Every structure is written in structure tokens, then in C-alpha cells.
Amino acid sequence: MKILHISDIHFGPYHWAADDALVLDKLNATNADIILNTGDLTSDSLEDEFQAAQKFLSKLACPHLISIMGNHDKYSRRSHEMFRKYIYDGEFIQPKNTAKIHKNKVYICPKTARLENYFTEVNYIRSFEIDKQKILVICLDTNLFQCDQGKVDEQILAALEVEIRAIKFDRALLMTHHSLLSTDDDPLINSKRVTDFVLRAGIEATFCGHTHELDMVEVSDLIRGNKFRQFMCGSLSSVNIPREDNMFCTYDNFGTPEEIITITRMHQLERGIEFVETVV
Ligand SMILES: [Fe+2]
User: How many domains does one find in the chain?
Assistant: First the structure.
């Protein structure tokens, strides 16, 4: 199984000026089985930014392309509807008990807005077979409405756990926008809840973005004896501060002894893009 991880494409003013066609060619040359796109498709949750993201993603040739929202994608009351319209529309997980929700704006008040859907969370599960193994990809919305910090709601995690228990699978992966482990000034404020969820559900790896930095760590739970790895990918195509490179990561033979992790850093040149590959 080959995974391609991209994040923080940031269409709109945060998107870099390099030629996206060159990036697409390089991404398509990876021939990945799965592409995991861990959020911040836009800069300001504007419709034209979602449309640009849709156009870019539609040019990726991959049987399983999975995208989630980032904090920048949730600046609008219509964010969830634009995500459904332009990026992915499917069955989103509903909370178990709506009376016990603590996360802000999981539902928009129907008295104050005209929307098609008042439930704003984009949590879903995708499953498919690769190399005769059933792969589960769990997409968890860690984003708060108009806020750069992240939070998850216990009722959503409970609903996801019920769904996961009902599915037979061989391998499970989690996608979040915010990091569960290493983080920045805008963290996932109840990340312990998600870490517990990962260990309970038997998820072998989590993928995230958000900070535009590269980070790959392994966590061992000394009490339960479980382990998982977290992969944080820098931004694919941002107007970064000088110390940050745009990049993407590929994982050949993911999770096997033959695994090869390749980080491809991208530097905009006067003409074209320089791609620099590092094998971990
Ligand atoms: Fe972000």
C-alpha cells in the first residue's frame, strides 16, 4: 500500500504563486493507492477558494482521494455546505446525544440562518480494499467555527466508536487537521481525548497538517501496550515564512518492514519548481 500525504493547499491569498500543474504532475507520478489530504484547502473559506481546490483535486489520478477540513475551511457558516458541494458529500457521522454536546456551533441555530443543513461537522469513515486488506480511513473534524484552535466533541467520538465497532477491517488510519501530539500556538485543546480514542480503536497511524511543519513520531502506551504513529506533513503550496518548505510525503509499503518514507520538498524558482527528495 502506497500512501501520499498532502496538506494545507490553502487556495486564496495563502496559496503560493508557483505553477500548480508542475505540482500535480509530480503528485501523479507517485502512483499512490491512497491520497490523504489533511485540510486547509482554502485561506478564508470562500466559495471561489473551494472551487479552486476542487479543480486542483479533480486532476489527481488516484483511486482513493480523501480530504478533510482545516480551521481555515471553517471560517464561514456555509463551510460545511461548500465542503459537501465541492469536495466530498457522503454520510457524515451524527452525535450520539445532541443534548450533551460541548463543542461550539456543532449545530447552527435554524432561527438565525437559512442553510440546507444545520449540522456543521464533517466526520466520516471511508473503507476500501488494497492488497486484499480492508482499509478504514476515519476522518475526524477537529476544527472549531471561526477559531484556529481545535476541539473534538465526546458525542462525536462516541458515535465514531460505535461505527468502527460495527465494521470488520484489517487496518485503520485516522485523519485530523490538528496534531494530537506535537502542536503550535493553536492546538487541539482536548487532544488527550483523541489519543485515547486512537488507542482504543486500534488505529495504527494518524495523519495531520495545520502547523506547516514536518513531524513524524511514534507513541507507545505503556499501560495498554498499544502503539501508533503520527505523521504531520508541511504545507503543499503555501506562501510560507522563509524557514518553511512546501512539501509532500509518500509512504511505500506503509507499515511493513519494507516501508520507505520519502519527503519531497519544493522550492519555487524563477522558472519552474525544484523538487528535492529525502528518504527517511
Ligand atoms: Fe490549519
Answer: 1
Q: What is the pLDDT of residues 209-219, one digit of tens each?
A: 999 999 999 99
Pairs from 217-223 (Cβ < 8 Å, separation ≥ 24): 217/181, 217/182, 219/181, 219/195
Measure 15 CA to ligand 1 centroid, in angstroms.
Answer: 13
Q: Phi, psi (5° rounding) for residue 106?
A: -65, -35
State the CATH number of the domain containing residue 129: 3.60.21.10
pLDDT confidence of 224, banded at 50, 70, 90?
confident
**What is the SS3 assignment for 38?**
coil
- CA-nearest of 252, 255, 234 to 33 is 252
Please check the confidence at residue 204 and state whether its pLDDT lies above 80: yes
Q: How far is the CA of 5 from the centre of ligand 1 (A)?
A: 15
Q: What is the mean pLDDT of residues 229-251?
A: 92
Q: What separation in Å is there between the alpha carbon of 133 and the centre of ligand 1?
A: 32
Domain span holding position 114: 3-279
Helix spans in 75-204 (H): 79-86, 154-165, 191-201
CA nearest neighbour of 70 among 206, 210, 207? 210
Taking only the tens place, the pLDDT of each residue in 31-50 is: 999 999 999 999 999 999 99
- pLDDT at position 75 over 90: yes
Task: Tell me the CA–centroid distance for residue 250 and ligand 1, in Å.
Answer: 21
218 Cα to the center of ligand 1, angstroms: 22
Overall average pLDDT of the 86-94 stretch: 96
CA of 95 to the centre of ligand 1 (A): 24
